[in-house]
Amino acid sequence: MLSLSKKHSAGILAVGMLVAGCSTALGQGPTQCRPPDVESTRLLSYVRKLVTTVDPERVALRTSLGLTAMDSLQVTLVTAKQVCAKAVQGMNQALKTGNLPRLVHVVTVGTDFAVRDPDAPAGEYLPTMFLDKKFKYKSSVLAP
Known about the structure:
Number of domains: 2
Radius of gyration: 21 Å
Number of helices: 4
Distance between the termini: 65 Å
Strand order of the largest sheet: 1-2-3-4-5
């Protein structure tokens, strides 16, 4: 009876390790996307205002960031972990921080992305990085 119990435990452990290994290999590991929260709402609001404004000073800022005017519906929160992982990689490459682990908010901006790491504030503002569709650095801004 004791021997059967040991075999059963070893079998369960082996199956558990196999399932864990497969889920990681299939990209089902932890995400680098932060869940929606107050900060993601703030980022969405900021970017939507930026791309829809007609205020000359804001239009100048938008242009300097390499962004164009667009409908606010083209600005959406990203929750796909593959996109967040690429955004983190792009952010780390731009900042030359190696493979620093991050949990970020990512927002689509047309075909580009706005990326923000709420754990890296600059005083009362948060650095917001804009990446192109290939996740290469375009520009950045300190934003509320």
